[in-house]
Amino acid sequence: MSGVVDLSLPVADILRKGTAAAHERAEHSQGAKWLARGELDKEEYVRFLMMLWHIYDAFERALEQHATHPVLAPTHNPGLFARSANLAADISYLLDVPEPSWQAHPLHATLTASPPAALTQYVSRIRDLAAGPDPSRLLAHAYVRYLGDLSGGQFIRRRIVKAYALDDGAGVSFYEFRPLGGGASTGTMGDLKKIKEWYRDGMNAGVGDNQELKATILDEAERAFDYNTALFDVLNPPLNPSTSSSDVEIDSPLHSPTETTPPPHGHGHSPLVKEDPKVVYEASEPPEEGESYVSMSSVLALVAALSITHFVLVTGGFTGERGYGKLDYLQHWLDSLLGRNAA
Length: 343
Known about the structure:
53% of the residues lie in helices and 0% in strands.
């Protein structure tokens, strides 16, 4: 467990404070930086989505299996959170193949024939927890991934749209959530903040005041961060990596909706393992218009503000109807700081 954490706090606060060391490790993952900057080659990005599909397929099945567990039940809402079907749809779109057939694609066949150890270990851990006597640790994995998708994932979505020319909105459904309580439209930044607040409240209700359980879930959350960091580490480098921003940290894919039915089994399940086995996103004031240099204080402010952990946005973020406008303004500022032409 990282540092000394006050276990009398609600578990959501404990996870935010207690994963600092894991955050630091993730922050220096080169693969996460490539992803966050939209630099991965398209095929490698699709391969990454395929690895994510195996992970989400594993823990969403595990969550469904233990949907009535008292620790997991308050946050169990597959209609709101489930990502595996969205991942399958995005993979199929990016490969330009019918959705039912993407698992037979050569890229996926190669992945499953020789999966990275980081992937098999991650999936194995989830299946072990699901099969064990106490599945409460699954909450930590859902927390790290789902709140990451709701937080840093929204920044990543913008980079992916630009990097792979997905201006029609297709191919990025993984990052999209509908509002709490229903509605057909994609949630605004304000809606996503409400979802995160609802999730944190659910975690706190499920875990309660059990300090031993809080420590257990914190321990598992740190593991989940490390599993994700290991996954970033197996990403292949882009053919044309950036040369202007290698030392600048930006937001991470980690954190850290209408009620619909869970994804049908027709989407398949991961064959990798047998059935038995995110700080507030607040940049400092942008430089004055026309300023052509980047001061050290600006760089330090940028690094601090855009640190790539799951709790970058979990404690706040851009909210309300104007949230996307604020995010767009920050995006252009980032591009100017990083020496890029804003699209």
